[in-house]
């Protein structure tokens, strides 16, 4: 399993992460980010894409 | 031995987001040889969208600004040599060398063209001092210093950057006049309907807008003190900002038989093409310098000046280049769906697809005259949905309309797909 954190002070709810990795990130009906902190390694590629496309660069992959 | 005459080296010309993403994606694509990234700015790659918005409003010290903006490269992006502070001056694609402004000559087996854009200037006479552009961190720090409360600021050009700078300057207490140019605020990317709403928002926040005119001369001796408009009006200004588009940094590629008219011509795999339309072996382009086909919306190849473009194009160009260096054909290229956003005062505007290529615009929800209350527009070309823009709506709505654009493209239908319930 792999882990991420999101700096919610930076996050501006653009929703780009939910496009790249919908299994880990989603936007609720109020437009606010919800996400899984822990996810299967098989999702690592798409989570890295989500990290790339975050305009605020607010997503961090944990060791 | 042939492998000794050809260095196992990929040179990436350009060290901004495109250069970084190219390096990362080349490692992801299995390139284990040398990777050299060459850029003219002294800084490692940093994030530019805040330069016209929050970083222009509150930059802090240069060190704080840079720390806040710096990209964190992927962990897998190891073994990269960064040559910063002296960009590529020339290339000889036949001999497979590049030369930096410092005179260093580097051989390569593969080359990534990622030198991006520079701001265009208003091509009229007048003093240069006191006139700003916004592209680099230094540009933003210099402009911020001049944006003192009460300063008279003239912003020339009303695309995303012009409008964002006008809004930021207004928020800092400046007296701002926006000279729109040949089209209204954000009209080219968003269409006339939303442009009117954006203009009203700017006006409501105290930004004066001047439509249907252009600058013919800058005033002042040593330093710019204002400008003269084509209709004869004179506008005095303490600060002038030019936001009138950009030029692709292609000069270093001249003399190689390429089509360098407005960027570098590429195929759908991002392979750079010679003027006969044949891919140049081992050369790809990444980012907003690349002019590439648009099978989704149709029409001629174009450059895409959005923040997502370097990331999108690097994902295609890097495996293309690695395959080519192995003597293989590139895999199928999935054309990326363009996406963009802007923030104006408290309003978030998000777009997908190619609204600028539309021949018709339809309201999906809301009233474009009142974007702050929430509006979504659909953009059609030959009756097919090719783009969508939301303003003042939660991201979930943006995602829904994005899916509608994808569905319309997947179906190939010329009739718009039913849109999700608002």
SSE blueprint:
The complex is a heterodimer of chains A (63) and B (422).
Chain A: E1 2-6, H1 16-20, E2 25-27, E3 33-35, E4 38-39, H2 44-53, E5 59-61
Antiparallel strand pairs in A: 1-4, 1-5, 2-3
Chain B: H1 2-5, E1 9-13, H2 17-28, E2 34-39, H3 54-57, H4 62-69, E3 80-84, E4 88-92, E5 97-100, E6 105-107, E7 110-113, E8 117-119, E9 131-132, H5 137-146, E10 152-156, H6 160-171, E11 175-179, H7 187-190, H8 192-204, E12 208-210, E13 215-219, E14 226-229, E15 234-236, E16 239-242, E17 246-248, E18 264-265, E19 271-273, E20 279-285, E21 290-291, H9 309-325, E22 339-344, E23 347-353, E24 360-366, E25 375-381, E26 384-391, H10 395-411
Parallel strand pairs in B: 1-2, 1-7, 2-3, 7-20, 9-16, 10-11, 10-16, 11-12, 18-21
Antiparallel strand pairs in B: 4-5, 5-6, 8-17, 13-14, 14-15, 19-20, 22-23, 23-26, 24-25, 25-26
Helix pairs in contact in B: 2-9
Sum this structure up briefly.
Chain A is α+β, with helices and mostly antiparallel strands and 63 residues long.
Keyphrases for this structure?
heterodimer, A: 63 residues, alpha+beta, Alpha-Beta Plaits, three-stranded antiparallel sheet, two-stranded antiparallel ribbon, 24% helix, 25% strand, globular, B: 422 residues, alpha/beta, FAD/NAD(P)-binding domain, Enolase-like, domain 1, 3 domains, six-stranded mixed sheet, five-stranded parallel sheet, 10 helices, FAD/NAD(P)-binding oxidoreductase (chain B)
How would you explain this protein's 3D organization?
The complex is a heterodimer of chains A (63) and B (422). Chain A has helices at residues 16-20, 44-53, and strands at residues 2-6, 25-27, 33-35, 38-39, 59-61. Chain A is α+β, with helices and mostly antiparallel strands and 63 residues long. Chain A is built from two helices and five strands, in the order βαβββαβ. Chain A is globular and about 30 Å long. Chain A has a single domain, classed as Alpha-Beta Plaits (2-Layer Sandwich), CATH 3.30.70.20. In chain A, a hairpin with a 5-residue loop joins strand 2 (25-27) and strand 3. By secondary structure, chain B is α/β, with parallel strands linked by helices. Chain B has three domains: 9-118 and 247-325, FAD/NAD(P)-binding domain (3-Layer(bba) Sandwich), CATH 3.50.50; 121-244, FAD/NAD(P)-binding domain (3-Layer(bba) Sandwich), CATH 3.50.50.60; 346-411, Enolase-like, domain 1 (2-Layer Sandwich), CATH 3.30.390. Chain B has helices at residues 2-5, 17-28, 54-57, 62-69, 137-146, 160-171, 187-190, 192-204, 309-325, 395-411; strands at residues 9-13, 34-39, 80-84, 88-92, 97-100, 105-107, 110-113, 117-119, 131-132, 152-156, 175-179, 208-210, 215-219, 226-229, 234-236, 239-242, 246-248, 264-265, 271-273, 279-285, 290-291, 339-344, 347-353, 360-366, 375-381, 384-391. Chain B has a six-stranded mixed beta sheet, covered by helices on one side. In chain B, strands 9-16-10-11-12 form a five-stranded parallel beta sheet. In chain B, strand 22 (339-344) and strand 23 form a beta hairpin. The termini of chain B are far apart. Mean pLDDT of chain B is 94; it is low at 1-5.
